[in-house]
């Protein structure tokens, strides 16, 4: 339930902010992720992102069965949020935006920035929220939220700044991303989650 609630509000905020062309979209998205992490991390870890769950799985802080459950809930909550946005904002307003379609250099650029910032996000989560060296810190939610906000500001104009497979799928449902190029995001994000988990283990061999 915690993963469902957190993922829902994250994807809903992304969709509502982008489809209404809010100039403060990166701030709102980073902020809602931060507060939902503070609200639910003590119960579920506050992943709200299948790539983060993958990184935590590689890192060894969640089992495969639990990870599968997280992924089902995260994608389901993202889809529900997208449907709610289409009905609350209005399908006509959602569809007035042309979906982000990528090809050529733009496609490679989107892959690169999604890989980089999804890695950054997962790497930050592992270090501030799962490390033995930060057992009782109070900054983990802010660190994670600001990572997403920084990514959205830096590369939002290049890829849309998803950094999250649930956001990616929800964005396609909301006609923010074009379906034919969705695989670019999902592949980049999966590689980034794996790489972040492996990197954490390599840099922290004694942190089991």
What does the secondary structure layout of this molecule look like, with pairings?
Elements: H1 2-19, H2 25-44, H3 50-59, H4 64-88, H5 91-94, H6 104-129, H7 140-159, H8 165-173, H9 182-203
Helix pairs in contact: 1-2, 1-4, 1-8, 2-7, 3-4, 3-6, 3-9, 4-8, 6-7, 6-9, 8-9
Structure description:
The structure is a single chain. The chain is mainly α and about 210 residues long. It contains nine helices and no strands. It has helices spanning about 1-20, 25-45, 50-60, 65-90, 90-95, 105-130, 140-160, 165-175, 180-205.
Q: Which CATH top level class fits? A: Mainly Alpha
Q: Mean of the pLDDT scores?
A: 94
Low-pLDDT stretches are: none
- H/E series, N to C? HHHHHHHHH
Please identify the oligomeric state: single chain
Report helical residue fraction. Answer: over 70%
Classify the secondary structure makeup into a structural class: mainly alpha
Number of helices: 9
* CATH architecture tag: Up-down Bundle
Rg, rounded, reads 16 Å
CATH superfamily: Glycerol uptake facilitator protein
Give the strand tally.
Answer: 0
The number of distinct structural domains comes to: 1
First-residue to last-residue Cα separation:
27 Å
Describe the sheet with the most strands: none
Briefly note the CATH topology name: Glycerol uptake facilitator protein
Report the principal-axis shape: globular
Tell me what portion of residues adopts beta-strand conformation. Answer: under 5%
Subcellular location: Membrane
Organism: Mycobacterium aquaticum
Keywords: Membrane, Transmembrane, Transmembrane helix, Transport
GO molecular function: channel activity
